[in-house]
Every structure is written in C-alpha cells, then in structure tokens.
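Bug #77: duplicate submission created two jobs. Keeping one. Sequence:
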Amino acid sequence: MTDFRKVAVLMGGWSAEREVSLNSGQAVLDALVRQGINAVGIDADEDICQRLKQENISHVFNMMHGRGGEDGVIQGVLDVLRIPYTGSGVLGSALSMDKMRCKQLWLGLALPTPEYQILGSEEDCQQAIAKLGFPMMIKPVLEGSSIGISKVKNAAEMLPAWQKATACGGAIMAERFIEGDEYTATILGERVLPMIRLETDNDFYDYQAKYVSNDTRYVCPCGLDELLERDLADLVKRAFAAVMAKSWGRVDFMIDKSGQPWLIEVNTVPGMTDHSLVPMAAKHAGLSFDELVLNILQGAEIHG
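Kept job's structure:
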C-alpha cells in the first residue's frame, strides 16, 4: 500500500452543492479513519493552499462537488502544489463539468447524446421550442446534482425554466427529453461496476429524488441483458475517455423506447452519501464502502 502519511479529505467549498459535498466528505473521512489512515477533513476556502502546506498533507481525497472542486480549479491548485489527488486532472474535470463541451466532444466522436441548443436569450428559447419540441430539459451548463434543472412540457413553462437556470450563472442549455429508462454506470479504474436503473415518481431524477426522497428506487442488477450491458459498458468507457476523465467517476445515460442509448453526462466527483449511487454499485460488485474509498485513494496522482 502507498504510504499515505497524511490525507486531506477536501469537502464543502463554495458551490451550490456544498451541503452534499460536506456529507460525502464526512463519509469518506470516517471510512479512512476506520482503516487506520491518518486523515483530516478540510472545508475548502480561499486559504486552501496555506492550509494544505501547514497540515503537511501528502495526499488529497477530493470530495468537493460542483464549481471549484469538480471543474479543474482545485485540480490545478493541487498540481502546482505537487500533491497527489483522487479523480481526474484539470482537463478531464473541466470538460466533464461543462455539459456543452462534453456534448460537443461526444458528437464529434459520433457518440449518442440528445440534441441540444444553448439559450442566451428569449429568442433562443423560441428557437429551441421549434427545434427540440416538448418535453425538453433546461439545464445550467456548469451545475451538478440537478440544481437549476427543469423539465419543460409546454411554452408557458419555457421562460420561467430558463430564468431559473439563468440564476445559477453560466450558459444555459435546452436538451431534447428522452422518453425511456434512466441508468448510471460507475467507472472504477478500468472496471465498469454493475449498472443501476433509476426509478422515481417525480418528473425526472431531480435533486429531491437524489438526496431527499426515500421513494426513489434503485434497481441493481438493472435488468438489462448481459450482452447488452457489456456493450453499454464499452460505450460508457468511451464516453468517459472522450472527456479525458480518469480513475473513477460516473456516466449517466438513458435508453429510449426503441432501445437506443443516449449519453447524458459525466460526473468526476460523484456523491458518496447514503443516497449515492457509486457506493450502491460497489456493493453489488462485492466492495464494501471502506474498500471502495481505499481503492479510489490508491489511484491518487499528480496530473500536471
């Protein structure tokens, strides 16, 4: 085992996903301590560089979700400080976090992802209606955890949804809604763990369904034919590699009524709470939460 002299679990930060990050980070910190690893939790702020130096940190387990933690910012800081860290590097983090750039790469590689349009004005909203039809999804390009996302079913809902997403900052994207089943696939090193089918009574798998509701259903094994799941695993790995993501993460996708898969997004710092999908997939692969955490930590490296 690598000599993890002192591991910092970075959590919190300043994104809209701060509370989820604190929960994920505490779960990871507890798992490391249970395994006898010298670990400390750090709620990241503008003094993070000084704190890492003062604490004499040898490795970082990054659990910062969203902006600042999942978009290449903290990764760049850690590369400069020459501290090995978990997950993807600057480029992989930035491309995965930006839903528009991610889609552009997938489309350029002929990987299936729903048609979209960037919404910069009310006129763009009208064009999106004509281009994509209803229903459609309205998403802030630079947010995770379904924050700011709306499913729009008619013209009356269009502008309020756009304004809600605009409040999150950054570009806004309209995406053709895929009628079908939603799945997620965890990547751990070179492995794709057992896929999970997500079922919710909500309009879509929103923040409430992810973190609050006890009625969301997680089906694993997901019920897909073994050969099909193997083909989908190959697609997921290609989608992950396309955005330069590394080490561990999650790829979300839909399968429509005709059986066509559609890639939705990549998460390079997935949640690790009691509602989170990666620990569920790991459990079905025979990995305990503690084993999962240690496995991820062992992949820590300097990317720059």
